Write the C-alpha coordinates for this entry.
Amino acid sequence: MVAWIPDNKIKEIQHTADIIDIISETVLLKKAGKNFVGLCPFHTEKTPSFTVSPAKQIFHCFGCGCGGDIFRFIMKQNGLNFPEAVTTLAGRYGIEIESQQISPAQQRRITEKEQLLDINNIAMLFFQSVLKKAQSSRKAQNYLAKRGMSEILIDKFKLGYAPSGWDNLLKHLNQKQISLSMAEKAGLIVQRKTKNGFYDRFRDRIIFPILNPGNKIIGFGGRVMDDSLPKYLNSPESPVYNKSKSLYGLHIAKSVMRETQTAYLVEGYFDVLALHLHKVNNSVATLGTSMTDAHVQLLKGCLGSEGKVILVYDSDKAGIKAALRSIPIFNQGFLEVRILVLPSGYDPDSYIMEFGKDLFLKIAADALGVIPFLIETAVKKHGVSVEGKIHILNDLIKPLAGLSDNIVKTLYIKQLAERLGINESAVLEKVKTSSIQQGNRTLGQSRAPFKRLPDIIEGQPKNSGPAATEYDVNKGINNRIEVQLLKMLLQFPEMAEEIRKKKIIDLFEDQSLKAVGKIILKHDDTAKERITDILIQVNEESQSNLIASLLLKEEVWDHKGCQRLIEQFTIRHNRHQTDLLQKIKDAEANNDIGLVTEILQSKQNKARQSDVLRRQN
Protein backbone atom coordinates (compact mmCIF):
# COMPACT_ATOMS: atom_id res chain seq x y z
CA MET A 1 0.00 0.00 0.00
CA VAL A 2 1.27 3.45 -0.88
CA ALA A 3 0.88 5.66 2.18
CA TRP A 4 -0.16 8.88 0.51
CA ILE A 5 -3.32 7.43 -1.04
CA PRO A 6 -5.97 7.02 1.71
CA ASP A 7 -7.51 3.56 2.11
CA ASN A 8 -11.00 4.98 1.89
CA LYS A 9 -10.24 6.43 -1.54
CA ILE A 10 -8.89 3.11 -2.80
CA LYS A 11 -12.03 1.36 -1.57
CA GLU A 12 -14.23 4.01 -3.16
CA ILE A 13 -12.50 3.40 -6.50
CA GLN A 14 -12.90 -0.36 -6.06
CA HIS A 15 -16.64 0.03 -5.46
CA THR A 16 -17.11 2.47 -8.36
CA ALA A 17 -14.91 1.07 -11.13
CA ASP A 18 -15.91 -2.08 -12.99
CA ILE A 19 -13.20 -4.34 -14.37
CA ILE A 20 -15.36 -5.38 -17.34
CA ASP A 21 -15.85 -1.76 -18.41
CA ILE A 22 -12.14 -0.98 -18.14
CA ILE A 23 -10.82 -4.09 -19.89
CA SER A 24 -13.50 -3.88 -22.60
CA GLU A 25 -11.88 -0.66 -23.79
CA THR A 26 -8.95 -2.62 -25.18
CA VAL A 27 -10.10 -6.25 -25.26
CA LEU A 28 -13.15 -7.66 -27.03
CA LEU A 29 -14.79 -9.73 -24.29
CA LYS A 30 -17.45 -12.38 -24.82
CA LYS A 31 -19.64 -14.00 -22.17
CA ALA A 32 -18.60 -17.51 -21.22
CA GLY A 33 -20.71 -18.80 -18.36
CA LYS A 34 -20.35 -16.46 -15.42
CA ASN A 35 -17.06 -15.05 -16.72
CA PHE A 36 -15.91 -13.24 -19.86
CA VAL A 37 -13.14 -14.33 -22.23
CA GLY A 38 -11.07 -12.60 -24.89
CA LEU A 39 -7.67 -12.49 -26.54
CA CYS A 40 -4.92 -11.61 -24.09
CA PRO A 41 -3.56 -8.07 -24.64
CA PHE A 42 -0.21 -9.06 -23.13
CA HIS A 43 0.86 -11.87 -25.45
CA THR A 44 0.07 -13.15 -28.93
CA GLU A 45 -2.51 -15.90 -29.06
CA LYS A 46 -4.93 -17.36 -31.55
CA THR A 47 -7.50 -18.81 -29.14
CA PRO A 48 -8.90 -16.70 -26.27
CA SER A 49 -7.43 -17.67 -22.90
CA PHE A 50 -7.81 -14.31 -21.15
CA THR A 51 -10.56 -14.60 -18.53
CA VAL A 52 -12.27 -11.84 -16.53
CA SER A 53 -14.49 -12.49 -13.53
CA PRO A 54 -17.03 -9.71 -12.87
CA ALA A 55 -18.01 -11.35 -9.57
CA LYS A 56 -14.46 -11.40 -8.22
CA GLN A 57 -13.33 -8.30 -10.19
CA ILE A 58 -10.16 -10.06 -11.34
CA PHE A 59 -8.55 -11.15 -14.61
CA HIS A 60 -6.26 -14.03 -15.47
CA CYS A 61 -4.72 -15.34 -18.68
CA PHE A 62 -4.34 -19.11 -18.76
CA GLY A 63 -1.92 -18.69 -21.67
CA CYS A 64 0.78 -16.39 -20.28
CA GLY A 65 -0.18 -16.48 -16.60
CA CYS A 66 -0.72 -12.75 -15.99
CA GLY A 67 -3.51 -11.80 -13.61
CA GLY A 68 -4.77 -9.55 -10.85
CA ASP A 69 -7.36 -6.91 -10.10
CA ILE A 70 -8.38 -3.74 -11.91
CA PHE A 71 -5.38 -1.81 -10.57
CA ARG A 72 -2.97 -4.50 -11.78
CA PHE A 73 -4.54 -4.42 -15.25
CA ILE A 74 -4.13 -0.66 -15.54
CA MET A 75 -0.55 -0.95 -14.28
CA LYS A 76 0.39 -3.64 -16.80
CA GLN A 77 -1.54 -2.15 -19.72
CA ASN A 78 -0.13 1.36 -19.36
CA GLY A 79 3.22 0.74 -17.68
CA LEU A 80 2.15 2.51 -14.47
CA ASN A 81 2.95 1.98 -10.83
CA PHE A 82 0.24 1.49 -8.19
CA PRO A 83 -0.28 5.19 -7.29
CA GLU A 84 -0.47 6.06 -10.99
CA ALA A 85 -3.05 3.34 -11.59
CA VAL A 86 -5.12 4.55 -8.64
CA THR A 87 -5.05 8.19 -9.75
CA THR A 88 -5.82 7.18 -13.34
CA LEU A 89 -8.95 5.34 -12.26
CA ALA A 90 -9.87 8.09 -9.82
CA GLY A 91 -9.75 10.62 -12.65
CA ARG A 92 -11.74 8.33 -14.90
CA TYR A 93 -14.60 8.06 -12.41
CA GLY A 94 -14.44 11.61 -11.06
CA ILE A 95 -13.15 10.58 -7.65
CA GLU A 96 -11.05 13.31 -6.08
CA ILE A 97 -8.01 12.49 -4.02
CA GLU A 98 -7.94 15.60 -1.86
CA SER A 99 -4.66 17.50 -1.91
CA GLN A 100 -4.97 18.37 1.79
CA GLN A 101 -4.57 14.69 2.55
CA ILE A 102 -1.12 14.75 0.95
CA SER A 103 1.87 16.26 2.72
CA PRO A 104 4.27 18.61 0.84
CA ALA A 105 6.83 15.81 0.61
CA GLN A 106 4.23 13.41 -0.72
CA GLN A 107 2.94 16.02 -3.15
CA ARG A 108 6.38 16.10 -4.78
CA ARG A 109 6.08 12.39 -5.37
CA ILE A 110 3.16 12.80 -7.75
CA THR A 111 4.28 10.96 -10.80
CA GLU A 112 6.06 12.36 -13.79
CA LYS A 113 3.57 10.74 -16.15
CA GLU A 114 0.62 12.45 -14.50
CA GLN A 115 2.40 15.79 -14.81
CA LEU A 116 3.13 15.20 -18.49
CA LEU A 117 -0.47 14.26 -19.20
CA ASP A 118 -1.66 17.40 -17.39
CA ILE A 119 0.75 19.57 -19.38
CA ASN A 120 -0.38 17.98 -22.64
CA ASN A 121 -3.98 18.71 -21.74
CA ILE A 122 -3.13 22.36 -21.02
CA ALA A 123 -1.38 22.59 -24.40
CA MET A 124 -4.33 20.99 -26.18
CA LEU A 125 -6.76 23.50 -24.67
CA PHE A 126 -4.42 26.32 -25.74
CA PHE A 127 -4.25 25.07 -29.34
CA GLN A 128 -8.03 24.66 -29.42
CA SER A 129 -8.66 28.15 -28.10
CA VAL A 130 -6.28 29.69 -30.63
CA LEU A 131 -8.03 27.90 -33.52
CA LYS A 132 -11.36 29.38 -32.46
CA LYS A 133 -10.02 32.96 -32.40
CA ALA A 134 -10.97 34.27 -35.82
CA GLN A 135 -8.30 36.94 -36.19
CA SER A 136 -5.22 34.92 -35.29
CA SER A 137 -6.22 31.68 -36.98
CA ARG A 138 -8.17 32.69 -40.09
CA LYS A 139 -5.67 30.84 -42.28
CA ALA A 140 -6.03 27.65 -40.25
CA GLN A 141 -9.83 27.85 -40.26
CA ASN A 142 -9.89 28.37 -44.01
CA TYR A 143 -7.48 25.50 -44.55
CA LEU A 144 -9.61 23.06 -42.54
CA ALA A 145 -12.75 24.25 -44.32
CA LYS A 146 -11.02 23.71 -47.67
CA ARG A 147 -10.17 20.14 -46.59
CA GLY A 148 -13.87 19.59 -45.83
CA MET A 149 -13.53 19.37 -42.06
CA SER A 150 -16.77 20.13 -40.20
CA GLU A 151 -17.00 21.92 -36.86
CA ILE A 152 -18.36 18.76 -35.27
CA LEU A 153 -15.39 16.73 -36.51
CA ILE A 154 -12.91 19.40 -35.41
CA ASP A 155 -14.35 19.29 -31.90
CA LYS A 156 -14.59 15.51 -31.90
CA PHE A 157 -10.88 15.12 -32.61
CA LYS A 158 -9.94 18.20 -30.56
CA LEU A 159 -8.06 19.83 -33.45
CA GLY A 160 -6.19 23.02 -32.78
CA TYR A 161 -3.77 25.54 -34.25
CA ALA A 162 -0.26 26.48 -33.16
CA PRO A 163 0.16 30.14 -34.14
CA SER A 164 3.22 31.47 -35.90
CA GLY A 165 5.89 32.90 -33.64
CA TRP A 166 8.50 31.29 -31.42
CA ASP A 167 7.07 31.53 -27.93
CA ASN A 168 3.26 31.62 -27.91
CA LEU A 169 2.82 28.32 -26.11
CA LEU A 170 5.91 29.00 -24.02
CA LYS A 171 4.36 32.20 -22.64
CA HIS A 172 1.10 30.39 -21.93
CA LEU A 173 2.91 27.65 -20.01
CA ASN A 174 4.81 30.27 -18.02
CA GLN A 175 1.55 31.95 -17.11
CA LYS A 176 0.25 28.60 -15.90
CA GLN A 177 3.44 28.17 -13.85
CA ILE A 178 4.29 24.97 -15.70
CA SER A 179 7.76 23.47 -15.26
CA LEU A 180 9.60 24.17 -18.51
CA SER A 181 11.80 21.12 -18.04
CA MET A 182 8.64 19.00 -17.93
CA ALA A 183 7.21 20.81 -20.94
CA GLU A 184 10.44 20.02 -22.78
CA LYS A 185 10.15 16.37 -21.74
CA ALA A 186 6.60 16.37 -23.15
CA GLY A 187 8.06 17.57 -26.45
CA LEU A 188 6.14 20.84 -26.51
CA ILE A 189 9.15 23.15 -26.34
CA VAL A 190 12.76 22.82 -27.47
CA GLN A 191 15.87 24.17 -25.78
CA ARG A 192 17.79 26.76 -27.78
CA LYS A 193 21.25 25.83 -29.03
CA THR A 194 22.69 28.55 -26.83
CA LYS A 195 21.11 26.81 -23.79
CA ASN A 196 19.65 30.16 -22.63
CA GLY A 197 15.98 29.44 -23.14
CA PHE A 198 13.31 27.54 -25.05
CA TYR A 199 11.10 27.96 -28.11
CA ASP A 200 7.83 26.33 -29.28
CA ARG A 201 8.19 23.06 -31.18
CA PHE A 202 4.92 23.58 -33.09
CA ARG A 203 4.57 26.87 -35.01
CA ASP A 204 2.00 27.84 -37.65
CA ARG A 205 0.63 24.30 -37.90
CA ILE A 206 -2.70 22.51 -37.65
CA ILE A 207 -2.49 20.47 -34.44
CA PHE A 208 -3.75 16.90 -34.10
CA PRO A 209 -3.84 15.77 -30.45
CA ILE A 210 -3.02 12.09 -30.02
CA LEU A 211 -5.05 10.32 -27.33
CA ASN A 212 -4.61 6.93 -25.73
CA PRO A 213 -7.58 4.53 -25.30
CA GLY A 214 -8.22 6.13 -21.91
CA ASN A 215 -8.78 9.54 -23.58
CA LYS A 216 -5.59 11.09 -22.20
CA ILE A 217 -3.52 13.42 -24.42
CA ILE A 218 -0.18 11.67 -24.93
CA GLY A 219 1.27 13.65 -27.84
CA PHE A 220 0.65 15.87 -30.86
CA GLY A 221 1.04 15.97 -34.59
CA GLY A 222 1.37 19.22 -36.52
CA ARG A 223 0.84 19.89 -40.24
CA VAL A 224 1.87 22.90 -42.29
CA MET A 225 -0.67 24.58 -44.56
CA ASP A 226 1.68 25.21 -47.48
CA ASP A 227 4.61 23.42 -49.12
CA SER A 228 7.01 23.95 -46.21
CA LEU A 229 9.06 21.05 -44.91
CA PRO A 230 8.69 18.98 -42.93
CA LYS A 231 5.05 18.62 -43.87
CA TYR A 232 4.32 16.79 -40.62
CA LEU A 233 5.99 17.28 -37.27
CA ASN A 234 5.23 14.91 -34.40
CA SER A 235 5.92 14.89 -30.68
CA PRO A 236 9.10 13.04 -29.77
CA GLU A 237 8.98 9.87 -27.69
CA SER A 238 8.27 10.58 -24.03
CA PRO A 239 7.33 8.65 -20.88
CA VAL A 240 3.67 8.87 -21.98
CA TYR A 241 4.03 8.67 -25.78
CA ASN A 242 5.41 5.79 -27.80
CA LYS A 243 4.45 5.99 -31.47
CA SER A 244 5.11 2.27 -31.93
CA LYS A 245 2.40 1.53 -29.37
CA SER A 246 -0.13 4.19 -30.35
CA LEU A 247 -2.76 4.55 -33.08
CA TYR A 248 -4.36 7.84 -34.06
CA GLY A 249 -8.13 7.83 -33.56
CA LEU A 250 -8.27 4.60 -31.55
CA HIS A 251 -9.98 6.29 -28.60
CA ILE A 252 -12.93 7.06 -30.90
CA ALA A 253 -12.82 4.08 -33.25
CA LYS A 254 -12.51 1.27 -30.69
CA SER A 255 -16.23 0.91 -29.95
CA VAL A 256 -17.20 0.69 -33.65
CA MET A 257 -14.28 -1.66 -34.32
CA ARG A 258 -15.62 -3.89 -31.56
CA GLU A 259 -19.14 -3.87 -33.03
CA THR A 260 -18.13 -4.47 -36.65
CA GLN A 261 -15.02 -6.61 -35.94
CA THR A 262 -13.39 -4.63 -38.73
CA ALA A 263 -10.79 -1.87 -38.72
CA TYR A 264 -9.55 0.34 -41.54
CA LEU A 265 -5.88 1.16 -41.09
CA VAL A 266 -4.51 4.21 -42.91
CA GLU A 267 -1.34 6.28 -42.72
CA GLY A 268 -2.33 9.90 -42.17
CA TYR A 269 -4.27 12.17 -39.82
CA PHE A 270 -6.44 13.57 -42.61
CA ASP A 271 -7.10 10.04 -43.90
CA VAL A 272 -8.67 9.19 -40.53
CA LEU A 273 -10.58 12.48 -40.38
CA ALA A 274 -11.97 12.08 -43.90
CA LEU A 275 -13.15 8.54 -43.19
CA HIS A 276 -14.79 9.59 -39.92
CA LEU A 277 -16.36 12.56 -41.69
CA HIS A 278 -18.10 10.02 -43.95
CA LYS A 279 -19.15 7.85 -40.97
CA VAL A 280 -16.49 5.20 -41.50
CA ASN A 281 -15.81 5.43 -37.79
CA ASN A 282 -13.75 2.26 -37.40
CA SER A 283 -10.67 3.91 -38.91
CA VAL A 284 -7.28 4.51 -37.30
CA ALA A 285 -3.79 5.47 -38.45
CA THR A 286 -0.21 4.68 -37.58
CA LEU A 287 1.85 7.64 -36.44
CA GLY A 288 4.74 7.97 -38.84
CA THR A 289 6.06 4.50 -38.19
CA SER A 290 5.73 1.03 -39.67
CA MET A 291 3.35 -1.49 -38.14
CA THR A 292 4.58 -3.13 -34.95
CA ASP A 293 3.57 -6.10 -32.83
CA ALA A 294 2.12 -3.65 -30.29
CA HIS A 295 -0.13 -2.10 -32.97
CA VAL A 296 -1.46 -5.52 -33.89
CA GLN A 297 -2.13 -6.31 -30.23
CA LEU A 298 -4.08 -3.04 -29.86
CA LEU A 299 -6.18 -3.82 -32.92
CA LYS A 300 -6.69 -7.44 -32.00
CA GLY A 301 -7.82 -6.49 -28.52
CA CYS A 302 -10.65 -4.43 -30.00
CA LEU A 303 -11.51 -6.78 -32.86
CA GLY A 304 -11.26 -10.21 -31.26
CA SER A 305 -10.11 -13.47 -32.83
CA GLU A 306 -12.61 -13.24 -35.71
CA GLY A 307 -11.75 -9.62 -36.57
CA LYS A 308 -10.01 -8.33 -39.66
CA VAL A 309 -7.97 -5.28 -40.58
CA ILE A 310 -8.19 -3.67 -44.01
CA LEU A 311 -4.99 -1.82 -44.90
CA VAL A 312 -5.92 1.22 -46.99
CA TYR A 313 -2.73 2.57 -48.47
CA ASP A 314 -1.83 5.01 -51.22
CA SER A 315 -1.48 3.61 -54.73
CA ASP A 316 2.15 4.74 -55.05
CA LYS A 317 5.17 2.49 -54.52
CA ALA A 318 5.67 3.71 -50.96
CA GLY A 319 2.10 2.75 -50.06
CA ILE A 320 2.45 -0.71 -51.55
CA LYS A 321 5.77 -1.26 -49.77
CA ALA A 322 4.17 -0.19 -46.49
CA ALA A 323 1.40 -2.75 -47.02
CA LEU A 324 3.92 -5.48 -47.81
CA ARG A 325 5.98 -4.71 -44.73
CA SER A 326 2.87 -4.97 -42.55
CA ILE A 327 1.86 -8.46 -43.65
CA PRO A 328 4.34 -10.48 -41.53
CA ILE A 329 3.45 -8.47 -38.43
CA PHE A 330 -0.25 -9.25 -38.78
CA ASN A 331 0.48 -12.88 -39.57
CA GLN A 332 2.58 -13.35 -36.46
CA GLY A 333 -0.22 -11.78 -34.42
CA PHE A 334 -2.80 -14.20 -35.88
CA LEU A 335 -4.96 -11.34 -37.12
CA GLU A 336 -6.59 -11.48 -40.55
CA VAL A 337 -5.49 -8.71 -42.87
CA ARG A 338 -6.74 -7.57 -46.26
CA ILE A 339 -5.08 -5.03 -48.50
CA LEU A 340 -6.90 -2.30 -50.40
CA VAL A 341 -4.70 -0.45 -52.87
CA LEU A 342 -6.59 2.60 -54.13
CA PRO A 343 -6.70 3.67 -57.78
CA SER A 344 -3.69 5.56 -59.06
CA GLY A 345 -3.39 9.10 -57.77
CA TYR A 346 -5.63 8.64 -54.72
CA ASP A 347 -5.07 8.35 -51.00
CA PRO A 348 -7.89 7.44 -48.55
CA ASP A 349 -8.62 11.13 -47.90
CA SER A 350 -8.96 12.18 -51.53
CA TYR A 351 -10.77 9.02 -52.60
CA ILE A 352 -13.62 9.14 -50.08
CA MET A 353 -13.95 12.91 -50.45
CA GLU A 354 -14.46 12.50 -54.20
CA PHE A 355 -16.44 9.26 -54.40
CA GLY A 356 -18.14 9.01 -51.00
CA LYS A 357 -18.71 6.32 -48.42
CA ASP A 358 -20.72 3.83 -50.49
CA LEU A 359 -18.13 3.42 -53.22
CA PHE A 360 -15.33 3.28 -50.67
CA LEU A 361 -17.07 0.46 -48.79
CA LYS A 362 -17.75 -1.32 -52.08
CA ILE A 363 -14.10 -1.45 -53.11
CA ALA A 364 -13.11 -2.23 -49.50
CA ALA A 365 -15.36 -5.28 -49.63
CA ASP A 366 -13.24 -6.53 -52.53
CA ALA A 367 -9.94 -5.95 -50.73
CA LEU A 368 -7.53 -8.79 -51.40
CA GLY A 369 -6.30 -11.30 -48.89
CA VAL A 370 -2.58 -11.77 -48.38
CA ILE A 371 -1.89 -14.42 -51.04
CA PRO A 372 -4.01 -12.81 -53.80
CA PHE A 373 -2.37 -9.47 -53.00
CA LEU A 374 1.10 -11.00 -53.22
CA ILE A 375 0.17 -12.62 -56.52
CA GLU A 376 -1.08 -9.38 -58.06
CA THR A 377 1.86 -7.41 -56.70
CA ALA A 378 4.33 -9.93 -58.14
CA VAL A 379 2.54 -9.92 -61.50
CA LYS A 380 2.72 -6.11 -61.70
CA LYS A 381 6.38 -6.19 -60.73
CA HIS A 382 7.62 -8.99 -62.99
CA GLY A 383 5.07 -9.27 -65.81
CA VAL A 384 3.87 -12.59 -67.27
CA SER A 385 6.70 -13.37 -69.65
CA VAL A 386 8.43 -16.71 -69.13
CA GLU A 387 11.10 -15.01 -67.01
CA GLY A 388 8.44 -13.04 -65.18
CA LYS A 389 6.51 -16.20 -64.29
CA ILE A 390 9.68 -17.76 -62.90
CA HIS A 391 10.22 -14.73 -60.65
CA ILE A 392 6.57 -14.74 -59.55
CA LEU A 393 6.80 -18.40 -58.57
CA ASN A 394 9.97 -17.76 -56.59
CA ASP A 395 8.23 -14.91 -54.74
CA LEU A 396 5.12 -16.95 -53.88
CA ILE A 397 6.47 -20.40 -53.04
CA LYS A 398 7.54 -19.62 -49.47
CA PRO A 399 4.31 -17.84 -48.49
CA LEU A 400 2.28 -20.72 -49.92
CA ALA A 401 4.44 -23.29 -48.15
CA GLY A 402 3.90 -21.43 -44.89
CA LEU A 403 0.11 -21.90 -44.96
CA SER A 404 -0.94 -24.33 -42.24
CA ASP A 405 -4.41 -25.10 -43.65
CA ASN A 406 -3.94 -27.61 -46.50
CA ILE A 407 -7.32 -26.83 -48.09
CA VAL A 408 -6.55 -23.11 -48.20
CA LYS A 409 -3.09 -23.90 -49.54
CA THR A 410 -4.54 -26.08 -52.34
CA LEU A 411 -7.02 -23.40 -53.38
CA TYR A 412 -4.34 -20.71 -53.57
CA ILE A 413 -2.00 -23.00 -55.52
CA LYS A 414 -4.82 -23.51 -58.00
CA GLN A 415 -5.42 -19.74 -58.20
CA LEU A 416 -1.73 -19.02 -58.82
CA ALA A 417 -1.46 -21.73 -61.48
CA GLU A 418 -4.51 -20.40 -63.33
CA ARG A 419 -3.28 -16.80 -63.06
CA LEU A 420 0.05 -17.74 -64.64
CA GLY A 421 -1.32 -20.36 -67.05
CA ILE A 422 0.96 -23.11 -65.83
CA ASN A 423 0.49 -26.67 -64.60
CA GLU A 424 -0.98 -26.85 -61.09
CA SER A 425 0.96 -30.00 -60.21
CA ALA A 426 4.27 -28.25 -60.96
CA VAL A 427 3.41 -25.47 -58.50
CA LEU A 428 2.28 -28.04 -55.93
CA GLU A 429 5.58 -29.91 -56.21
CA LYS A 430 7.63 -26.76 -55.64
CA VAL A 431 5.49 -25.84 -52.63
CA LYS A 432 5.92 -29.33 -51.15
CA THR A 433 9.70 -29.11 -51.55
CA SER A 434 9.75 -25.69 -49.87
CA SER A 435 7.50 -26.96 -47.05
CA ILE A 436 9.93 -29.80 -46.30
CA GLN A 437 12.89 -27.40 -46.31
CA GLN A 438 11.12 -24.96 -44.00
CA GLY A 439 10.06 -27.82 -41.73
CA ASN A 440 13.65 -29.04 -41.44
CA ARG A 441 14.88 -25.55 -40.56
CA THR A 442 12.30 -25.15 -37.82
CA LEU A 443 12.22 -28.73 -36.51
CA GLY A 444 10.97 -28.82 -32.96
CA GLN A 445 9.77 -25.20 -33.06
CA SER A 446 6.33 -23.70 -33.61
CA ARG A 447 6.19 -21.80 -36.89
CA ALA A 448 3.70 -19.19 -38.01
CA PRO A 449 2.89 -18.97 -41.74
CA PHE A 450 4.59 -16.18 -43.72
CA LYS A 451 7.23 -15.79 -41.03
CA ARG A 452 9.47 -14.94 -43.93
CA LEU A 453 8.04 -13.38 -47.07
CA PRO A 454 9.61 -13.01 -50.53
CA ASP A 455 12.21 -10.47 -51.54
CA ILE A 456 9.55 -7.98 -52.70
CA ILE A 457 9.12 -7.19 -49.01
CA GLU A 458 11.75 -5.01 -47.40
CA GLY A 459 12.58 -5.61 -43.76
CA GLN A 460 11.53 -8.36 -41.39
CA PRO A 461 9.85 -7.99 -38.00
CA LYS A 462 11.52 -8.99 -34.79
CA ASN A 463 9.99 -11.88 -32.93
CA SER A 464 8.33 -10.86 -29.72
CA GLY A 465 9.88 -12.24 -26.58
CA PRO A 466 8.32 -15.07 -24.61
CA ALA A 467 5.40 -14.18 -22.40
CA ALA A 468 5.42 -14.73 -18.69
CA THR A 469 4.34 -18.22 -17.65
CA GLU A 470 2.09 -19.42 -14.87
CA TYR A 471 3.58 -20.46 -11.58
CA ASP A 472 5.32 -23.82 -12.03
CA VAL A 473 3.38 -26.36 -9.99
CA ASN A 474 5.49 -29.26 -11.25
CA LYS A 475 8.43 -28.77 -8.90
CA GLY A 476 7.32 -31.67 -6.73
CA ILE A 477 4.42 -33.09 -4.76
CA ASN A 478 5.07 -30.81 -1.76
CA ASN A 479 4.87 -27.78 -4.00
CA ARG A 480 1.57 -28.94 -5.52
CA ILE A 481 0.10 -29.49 -2.07
CA GLU A 482 1.22 -26.00 -1.04
CA VAL A 483 -0.52 -24.54 -4.09
CA GLN A 484 -3.67 -26.47 -3.21
CA LEU A 485 -3.55 -25.15 0.36
CA LEU A 486 -3.40 -21.58 -0.96
CA LYS A 487 -6.31 -22.28 -3.29
CA MET A 488 -8.25 -23.64 -0.32
CA LEU A 489 -7.45 -20.52 1.72
CA LEU A 490 -8.72 -18.26 -1.04
CA GLN A 491 -11.81 -20.23 -1.99
CA PHE A 492 -12.76 -21.67 1.44
CA PRO A 493 -11.65 -19.04 3.99
CA GLU A 494 -13.45 -20.95 6.77
CA MET A 495 -10.22 -22.95 7.17
CA ALA A 496 -8.03 -19.90 7.66
CA GLU A 497 -8.23 -19.97 11.45
CA GLU A 498 -7.05 -23.59 11.62
CA ILE A 499 -4.21 -22.82 9.19
CA ARG A 500 -3.17 -19.96 11.46
CA LYS A 501 -3.41 -22.10 14.59
CA LYS A 502 -1.24 -24.89 13.20
CA LYS A 503 1.21 -22.48 11.53
CA ILE A 504 0.91 -24.45 8.30
CA ILE A 505 2.14 -21.60 6.08
CA ASP A 506 5.36 -21.36 8.12
CA LEU A 507 6.16 -24.93 7.07
CA PHE A 508 5.98 -24.18 3.34
CA GLU A 509 9.19 -24.99 1.50
CA ASP A 510 8.50 -22.64 -1.40
CA GLN A 511 9.31 -19.12 -0.22
CA SER A 512 7.14 -17.43 -2.86
CA LEU A 513 4.11 -19.49 -1.89
CA LYS A 514 4.85 -18.85 1.77
CA ALA A 515 4.88 -15.08 1.15
CA VAL A 516 1.52 -15.25 -0.64
CA GLY A 517 0.06 -17.40 2.12
CA LYS A 518 1.06 -14.91 4.80
CA ILE A 519 -0.57 -12.08 2.85
CA ILE A 520 -3.82 -14.06 2.59
CA LEU A 521 -3.85 -14.84 6.31
CA LYS A 522 -3.53 -11.16 7.23
CA HIS A 523 -7.04 -10.37 6.03
CA ASP A 524 -10.43 -10.80 7.59
CA ASP A 525 -11.81 -14.17 6.49
CA THR A 526 -15.37 -12.85 6.28
CA ALA A 527 -14.75 -9.41 4.73
CA LYS A 528 -16.72 -8.73 1.56
CA GLU A 529 -13.74 -7.05 -0.11
CA ARG A 530 -11.28 -9.70 1.09
CA ILE A 531 -9.98 -10.63 -2.36
CA THR A 532 -9.43 -7.06 -3.54
CA ASP A 533 -7.79 -6.21 -0.21
CA ILE A 534 -5.42 -9.14 -0.64
CA LEU A 535 -4.50 -8.18 -4.21
CA ILE A 536 -3.79 -4.58 -3.20
CA GLN A 537 -1.26 -5.81 -0.65
CA VAL A 538 0.59 -7.90 -3.23
CA ASN A 539 3.76 -6.23 -4.47
CA GLU A 540 5.17 -8.80 -6.88
CA GLU A 541 3.53 -9.34 -10.26
CA SER A 542 4.18 -13.09 -9.99
CA GLN A 543 2.19 -13.18 -6.73
CA SER A 544 -0.72 -11.31 -8.29
CA ASN A 545 -0.65 -13.74 -11.23
CA LEU A 546 -0.72 -16.73 -8.89
CA ILE A 547 -3.61 -15.47 -6.78
CA ALA A 548 -5.74 -14.65 -9.83
CA SER A 549 -5.01 -18.11 -11.25
CA LEU A 550 -6.01 -19.86 -8.03
CA LEU A 551 -9.22 -17.85 -7.76
CA LEU A 552 -10.39 -18.56 -11.30
CA LYS A 553 -9.69 -22.29 -11.17
CA GLU A 554 -12.64 -22.89 -8.91
CA GLU A 555 -13.12 -26.15 -7.01
CA VAL A 556 -15.78 -27.43 -4.61
CA TRP A 557 -14.51 -27.40 -1.05
CA ASP A 558 -15.93 -28.78 2.18
CA HIS A 559 -14.58 -28.95 5.72
CA LYS A 560 -13.81 -32.66 5.56
CA GLY A 561 -11.83 -32.36 2.32
CA CYS A 562 -9.89 -29.42 3.69
CA GLN A 563 -8.97 -31.39 6.80
CA ARG A 564 -7.67 -34.24 4.65
CA LEU A 565 -5.50 -31.84 2.66
CA ILE A 566 -3.99 -30.36 5.84
CA GLU A 567 -3.33 -33.86 7.21
CA GLN A 568 -1.73 -34.93 3.94
CA PHE A 569 0.56 -31.93 4.02
CA THR A 570 1.50 -32.61 7.68
CA ILE A 571 2.22 -36.30 7.03
CA ARG A 572 4.44 -35.51 4.06
CA HIS A 573 6.24 -32.84 6.03
CA ASN A 574 6.96 -35.28 8.89
CA ARG A 575 7.98 -38.00 6.45
CA HIS A 576 10.45 -35.59 4.95
CA GLN A 577 11.99 -35.12 8.41
CA THR A 578 12.35 -38.89 8.77
CA ASP A 579 13.99 -39.13 5.34
CA LEU A 580 16.51 -36.50 6.41
CA LEU A 581 17.49 -38.58 9.44
CA GLN A 582 18.05 -41.62 7.27
CA LYS A 583 20.19 -39.58 4.84
CA ILE A 584 22.33 -38.41 7.75
CA LYS A 585 22.89 -42.00 8.93
CA ASP A 586 23.82 -43.09 5.40
CA ALA A 587 26.22 -40.17 4.97
CA GLU A 588 27.88 -40.90 8.34
CA ALA A 589 28.26 -44.56 7.41
CA ASN A 590 30.02 -43.48 4.19
CA ASN A 591 32.12 -40.95 6.13
CA ASP A 592 30.81 -38.13 3.88
CA ILE A 593 31.34 -35.19 6.27
CA GLY A 594 30.37 -32.53 3.71
CA LEU A 595 27.02 -34.15 3.01
CA VAL A 596 26.36 -34.63 6.75
CA THR A 597 26.97 -30.92 7.39
CA GLU A 598 24.67 -29.91 4.52
CA ILE A 599 21.87 -32.22 5.68
CA LEU A 600 22.19 -31.13 9.30
CA GLN A 601 21.83 -27.49 8.37
CA SER A 602 18.70 -28.31 6.39
CA LYS A 603 17.38 -30.50 9.22
CA GLN A 604 17.90 -27.78 11.82
CA ASN A 605 15.78 -25.39 9.80
CA LYS A 606 13.05 -28.00 9.41
CA ALA A 607 13.27 -28.99 13.07
CA ARG A 608 12.59 -25.47 14.22
CA GLN A 609 9.48 -25.41 12.07
CA SER A 610 8.37 -28.84 13.37
CA ASP A 611 8.71 -27.64 16.97
CA VAL A 612 6.31 -24.85 16.19
CA LEU A 613 3.83 -27.32 14.71
CA ARG A 614 4.08 -29.71 17.71
CA ARG A 615 3.56 -26.89 20.21
CA GLN A 616 0.41 -25.78 18.39
CA ASN A 617 -1.01 -29.31 18.39
Q: What stands out?
A: Residues 559-589 form the longest helix (31 residues).
